[in-house]
Specification:
The chain is α/β, with parallel strands linked by helices and 217 residues long. It has a domain of 133 residues: Alpha-Beta Complex (2-enoyl-CoA Hydratase, Chain A, domain 1), CATH 3.90.226.10. Helices cover 45% and strands 18% of the residues. It has nine helices and nine strands. The strands form two sheets. Strands 2, 3, 5, 6, 7, 8 and 9 form a seven-stranded mixed β-sheet that branches. A two-stranded antiparallel sheet has the order 1-4. Strand 2, helix 4 and strand 3 form a beta-alpha-beta unit. Helix 7 packs across helix 8. The protein is globular. This is ATP-dependent Clp protease proteolytic subunit. It is an enzyme of class 3 (hydrolase). GO terms for molecular function: ATP-dependent peptidase activity; ATPase binding; serine-type endopeptidase activity. Keywords: Cytoplasm, Hydrolase, Protease, Serine protease.
């Protein structure tokens, strides 16, 4: 009998806990509203140097956002870029591609949390240029550690577990650098899902300002 080929392990992710487990049962999916806006809306926003992350972070959305930022930086390396985030999280590797692009370009990147900035969305929100990280009043922010499914041979499981441990340490270090908290504090706080209101996110160091109107930013 042929030996079945093992399925590849899924990528590391920072998925958000479903809202109906932590909040009232009514859910408003960020991803559901994006297709209806149409590409023309996002193209018009780009002319104002506005980039929108309004869905789960995957390779396609990460490549789109990174490409938009690189284009805007090439057009004007001194003008700010505004990144609006309403995301339940997603792939760690794809999210880090966006984060590295934010650091790579010469422009300041102002980040705005709206609705939900969870998991990898939280990391990107707090990765904005210091002093230019904003959150709208009713935004929910979620911080937790990366997760991944692990399967296969014992050796593969050990390798995967070590990679997950390193990912956890890396993400804790990034969040610590962005917030001013110690890495030990982050490791303790994101061991389980931890939710923040806009004001709590400000106090923790994820953002610099809570704003209700555009003129306040």
């Amino acid at each position: 009998m042929p030996v079945p080929t093992p399925k590849p392990n899924p990528p590391f992710r920072m998925p958000a806990t479903p809202l109906d487990q932590a909040l009232p049962p009514t859910r408003m999916s960020a991803t559901a509203s994006v297709p209806g806006l149409g590409d023309s809306v996002f193209e018009r926003l780009l002319t104002h140097r506005i980039v929108v992350l309004g869905q789960e972070v995957d390779a396609d959305i990460a490549n789109r956002i990174a490409g938009q930022m690189l284009l805007l930086a090439a057009e004007d390396p001194e003008a700010d870029i505004s990144l609006y985030i309403n995301s339940p999280g997603g792939s760690v590797h794809d999210g880090l591609a966006v984060l590295d692009t934010m650091r790579f370009i010469p422009c300041d990147v102002a980040t705005y949390g709206m609705g939900l900035a969870a998991s990898m969305g939280q990391v990107l929100l707090s990765a904005g240029t210091p002093g230019k990280r904003y959150v709208l009043p009713h935004t929910q922010v979620l911080m937790h550690q990366p997760s991944a499914g692990v399967g296969g041979k014992e050796t593969d499981i050990r390798i995967r577990a070590e990679l997950l441990r390193r990912n956890k340490e890396e993400m804790a270090g990034l969040i610590a650098a962005h917030t001013g908290q110690t890495q030990e504090q982050i490791l303790a706080d994101f061991d389980r899902d931890r939710w923040f209101t806009a004001q709590e996110a400000l106090e923790y160091g994820f953002v610099d300002h809570v704003v209700a109107r555009a003129g306040q930013a």
